Amino acid sequence: MDPKLTEVAQLFERFKAAFVRNDFDTCSNFLSQLKVKLTEFRSLPPLFEDTPNAIRELTLARDIYEHAVVLSVKIEDQDAFERDFFQLKSYYTDARDRLPPSPQEYPILGLNLLRLLVQNRIAEFHTELELLSSAALENPCIKHAVELEQSFMEGAYNRVLSARQTVPHETYVYFMDLLAKTVRDEIAGCSEKAYDYLSIKDARQMLLFPSDRDLLAYVEEVTFTVTCIFSFFHIESKLTVLLQRD
User: Fold this and answer.
1) Phi, psi dihedral angles at 198 (to 5 degrees)
2) CATH code assigned to 3-192
3) Torsion sign over Cα 73, 74, 79, 80
4) Cα–Cα distance measured from residue 196 to residue 190, given in angstroms and rounded to the nearest whole number
5) Cis amide prior to 46 (ω within 30 degrees)
6) CB under 8 Å to 166, separation ≥6 — which residues?
7) What pTM does this model have?
8) Per-residue pLDDT tens digits for 31-66
9) Which end of the chain has fewer CB atoms within 10 angstroms, the N or the C?
């Protein structure tokens, strides 16, 4: 095997070992080194030269960028996600005829759709959908994102919030939590205008929180005044009781 390819493969193994340990600082350091070393492979996009180790280099590079996308979710860096995804995307499109399918392709494509939905980039969401094959659209990861977008646009917020329990891949939880907060902020904003008073029970059911404590944590986090939506003394007394239990 080519010494450069061997070096990159060994460094990638160290990256994956750190990833398993959840040592994401070390992962980020290794990833920076890997990206630099990948620039030495002329078989990779945009050149796509037919070198003796082209298939191995393309496969390894694709695997590295797939891990980079997942790492960006783990460290909650949406900018890094976008950069790494667009570098990875060419391996799914331009190199499709050269490489066997990746089992991570549909989960990552679905994850990107979910990111666009969270960022309210609906036009880009639909553009990405139009580029997918009919087979891809039937994949559970893609269907999950499509159904979420439909529920969101219809205002069926209960379906959006409950969808967290049925995510097709564990990496989706990060974006689902962001989407859930967006939805709850929307519901809370509407409630502020529609109701003079809501009991804790009614507010918890409306916002689909599993417990009063989760509701109260949300109320403390959001910026609108508690009294605009809930009875302040009701919230305060309930919070005091819960804290005393601890």
Assistant:
1) -135, 135
2) 1.25.40.990
3) negative
4) 12
5) yes
6) 144
7) 0.83
8) 999 999 999 999 999 999 999 999 999 999 999 999
9) C
